[in-house]
Amino acid sequence: MPIPGTPSRAELVDHLVKTRIAGEVATPRENNLSHYRQLANGNRHYWFGLELGDRWSDEQDVLAVMAERVGVNDDPEYRYGQDTIDPELTVGGLERMAARLRKAADGQQRVLFATGHPGGMLDVHHATAAALRTAGSEIVVIPDGLQTDEGYVMQFADVAVLEHGATLWHTHSGDPMKAILTALEREGRPLPDLVVADHGWAGYAGQHGVDSVGYADSNDPALFLAEAEGTVQVTVPLDDHVVSPRYYDPMTAYLLAEAGLA
Predict the structure, then answer these.
(1) Cβ pair 72, 32 in contact under 8 A
(2) What DSSP string describes the chain?
(3) Integer Cα distance of 79 and 177 in angstroms
(4) Is the pTM of this model over 0.85?
(5) How far apart are CA 235 and CA 212, in angstroms?
(6) Per UniProt, what is one Pfam family of this protein (predicted)?
(7) Cα separation of 227 and 23, whole Å?
(8) Across residues 242-246, what is the average pLDDT?
(9) pLDDT for residue 214
(10) CA atoms of 166 and 210, how far apart (whole Å)
């Protein structure tokens, strides 16, 4: 591992399970349920830049969506131990995302990439951005001088990130994406046609009315609820920070091949 070249669908499913990107993932059941409860109780840290109102105030409704769209155990009495992500749902999400990327390439659309999980997902987004640029899409360059309460909003390798103390920062917040979109509007520049992201970057973009696709872990329900409601177009379930970022390379290769961007 990682396996060379572009895997077949079956090979990718096997790889996802072996690397614990899907299958029996590292995130424990009790952590998943705690996050579902926090979201249902109105803790905006878990809303990922979305406005969920009181539509998801029952944590059992949240669990039902996560069982359907992620593959976690659907038994509300199962409280502790191992939980799962269905690798078939991961690959299905990649295929749906690939279709939207193909549309962006065919239309030479403006695409913005961003990550709140740079330790795991930065290269996935960078490789996708490079493939879209080669296909003729415009990769949006963010305005300079942006910041939020957490830090500075920067762009590295075509991917918007949060920088704090000379370190790329893990964040769930939608505020960095809000800063970018607000600044683009203020400067009279067009908004992206598509945002490819994760965490609050993807959530806020969708809430703002921009087409948004992204990745999310089994303990991050907000984007899956947004997909269920149509606010976010695609959410791919995966463990977003496994042992090595190289483990995502076969997944990225499959995504780009499905999109006709390889």
Answers:
(1) yes
(2) -PPSSPPPHHHHHHHHHHHTSSEE-SS-HHHHHHHHHHHHTT-GGGTTT---TTTT--HHHHHHHHHHHT-----TT--SS--EE-HHHHHHHHHHHHHHHHHHHHTT-EEEEE-S-HHHHHHHHHHHHHHHHHTTPEEPPPPSSEE-SS-EEEEETTEEEEEETTEEE----SHHHHHHHHHHHHTTPPPPSEEEEEHHHHHHHHHTT--EEEEE-TT--HHHHHHHHTSSSEEEE--SS-S-GGGGHHHHHHHHHHTT--
(3) 34
(4) yes
(5) 9
(6) Phosphatase
(7) 21
(8) 95
(9) 98
(10) 30
Band (161; pLDDT cuts 50, 70, 90): very high
Question: CA torsion angle for 69, 1, 19, 68 (degrees, to 10)?
Answer: 10
CA distances from 26 to 21, 22, 39, 84, 249 (A): 9, 9, 21, 9, 19
Nearest to 202 by CA among 112, 120, 135, 128: 112
Angle between helices 87-106 and 118-134 (to 10 degrees): 40
Among candidate residues 39, 61, 50, the one with its CA nearest the CA of residue 219: 39
Task: Say whether the peptide bond before residue 250 is cis (omega within 30 degrees of 0).
Answer: no
Mean pLDDT to the nearest integer, 101-118 = 98
**Pair of tokens at residue 40:** 């249902």
Residue 185: what residue type?
E
**Average of pLDDT values for 20-30?**
96
The torsion angles phi and psi of 197, rounded to 5 degrees, stand at -160, -155
66 touches 72 (CB < 8 A) = yes
Q: Which two tokens stand for residue 48?
A: 């990922």
